[in-house]
Specification:
Helix content is 35%, strand content 18%. The two termini are 19 Å apart. The protein is elongated, with a radius of gyration of 19 Å. By secondary structure, it is an alpha/beta fold. The protein has nine helices and 14 strands. It folds into two domains: 2-72 and 186-254, HAD superfamily/HAD-like (Rossmann fold); 76-183, Rossmann fold (3-Layer(aba) Sandwich), CATH 3.40.50.1000. Strands 4-1-12-13-14 form a five-stranded parallel beta sheet, sandwiched between helices. It has a five-stranded parallel beta sheet with strand order 6-5-7-8-11, sandwiched between helices. A two-stranded antiparallel ribbon has the order 2-3.
């Protein structure tokens, strides 16, 4: 199946890398795909960086992307505009999330003025305080829709360690408010479709490769892509179209020599 595909879209956190370390064989397999003329794109649910920053990290770790990486920050401001028009947005997350929201023409709302918010945008917030959490939950309970880059509960790090992910914070806000969020990133279709358009491929000509069944596999299937689950510890064979334990196995199945 994989030998016939013209392109591959790779998840990053947990798949290509763990924290600041590439997974074994990733650089060699990605380079081999490039040499073989296969399209390669990168799609991550990162809620704290735009594609240029993520691409810079790829290069720093020894991978040269042919296409800029995609993150939900590329479209989150536009999604808010399309759904709700110009909005007053309370942002709980990184400065990069606030910047793209403001750059899309929305007005940022201070935590203490949460009653003025018409939308709440929640990303992973390394400076989270109880005041910020309470303001977001109160604004959402008062009727402001919650928009988030992703619902991923963990951010994988080196040696099996992790940080609480964006999804952990979103769930805290939404459980307190009694609402559900609008999700911009995986597994929703928009970023998958942008990645395919950049590769110039139809869904059945490409595979989504990632470590999450609920995010990568479900999202890839939803748009008609083949799916590859990267699972070093193993997984049921029906978890995706193809389950691999290593990048070397992926390279062999794709018919490329690292």
């Amino acid at each position: 199946m994989l030998e016939a595909l013209r392109g591959f879209v790779f998840d990053l956190d947990g798949c290509v890398w763990q924290g600041e370390r590439l997974n074994p064989g990733a650089a060699e397999t990605l380079a081999a795909l490039h040499r073989a003329g296969r399209g390669v794109a990168y799609l991550t649910n990162n809620s704290r960086a735009r594609g240029a920053e993520v691409s810079a990290k790829l290069r720093r770790l020894g991978v040269t992307p042919s296409e800029p990486a995609l993150t939900p920050l590329e479209i989150v401001g536009d999604v808010v505009a399309e759904r709700y028009g110009p909005s007053r947005v309370l942002v709980i997350g990184a400065p990069e999330l606030a910047a793209v929201v403001e750059g899309a023409g929305h007005t940022l709302v201070d935590v203490k003025a949460w009653r003025n918010a018409t939308v709440v945008a929640v990303g992973n917030d390394f400076d989270l305080t109880y005041e910020r959490l309470a303001a977001a939950a109160r604004a959402a309970a008062a009727g402001a829709p919650v928009v988030t880059p992703n619902l991923d509960p963990r951010l994988p790090l080196e040696d099996g360690d992790f940080l609480p992910g964006c999804g952990a914070i979103v769930e805290a806000v939404c459980v307190a408010a009694g609402v559900r969020p609008v999700v911009v990133g995986k597994p929703e279709p928009p970023l998958f479709r942008i990645a395919l358009a950049r590769l110039g491929l139809r869904p059945h000509e490409a595979a989504m490769v990632g470590d999450s069944v609920t995010s990568d596999v479900a999202g890839g299937h939803a748009v008609g892509m083949r799916t590859v689950l990267y699972a070093p510890d193993g997984a049921p064979p029906d978890a995706a179209d193809v389950v691999v334990r290593s990048f070397a196995e992926l390279a062999r199945l794709a018919g490329v020599a690292p």
